[in-house]
Amino acid sequence: MLFYDCATAPSPRRARMFIAEKGLEIPTREISISKHQQLSPEFLSVNPRGTVPVLVTAQGNALTENLAIATYLEAMYPQPPLMGVTADEKADIMMWTAIAEAQCGLPIAEALRNSNPHMKGRAIPGTTNFDQIPELAQRGIQRLGLFFDMLETHLQNRTYVATNQFTLADITTFVFVDFARVVKYRVEDTHPNLKRWYAHIKARPSASL
Ligand SMILES: N[C@@H](CCC(=O)N[C@@H](CS)C(=O)NCC(=O)O)C(=O)O
């Protein structure tokens, strides 16, 4: 296997955390987004869509989505289970993973990529250049606020985001909640349940990677 990582970006961090939680050590190549290495001919021959992370499987299949990487590693290395055991657990974990992607990850991307001067012409990741739309940045911040509030209520009587164990849903939610700092959004005392959950997940060794 070969893992294509990027130390500064949230999506590769999700896969990195998942790999660490499985106790795996996979040969890794760093791709610098700031140096545009994701758009180099060499990397595009691995992922023609020009995004990280990528996991090249033992069979030589290039997996270019977090969900695919997690699904593959969970099937290959079932212990500890990070994607549930029963049908209800599996479904709940996928549901909260999808919620975190759509309602936290995407609003951050919307806010950051449509406002940061370094991302001019790079409003969407990938091989096509898109102009920034400043109104989308404002909407992204507004949506992020709604997500933090929703999560605060959801975590009221819960230790983890989905099921009663640490799962992929915690990884995805944690990485995006943490990354919200790039648009000056942080977990504050106004959200005590979210703060408690965030500190709990942050204490895991995989969260420091
Ligand atoms: N849906 C993909 C998202 C991958 C993605 O968008 N990665 C970003 C980094 S967080 C990227 O490669 N950006 C390249 C760019 O900005 O050009 C996943 O979950 O793995």
Automatic annotation (TrEMBL):
Residues 1-81 form the GST N-terminal domain. It comes from the Bacteria. One of its GO terms (molecular function) is transferase activity. Residues 86-209 form the GST C-terminal domain. Pfam families: GST_C (PF00043), GST_N_2 (PF13409). The keyword Transferase applies. Keywords: Transferase. CDD domains: GST_N_GTT2_like. This is Glutathione S-transferase family protein. It comes from Shimia litoralis.
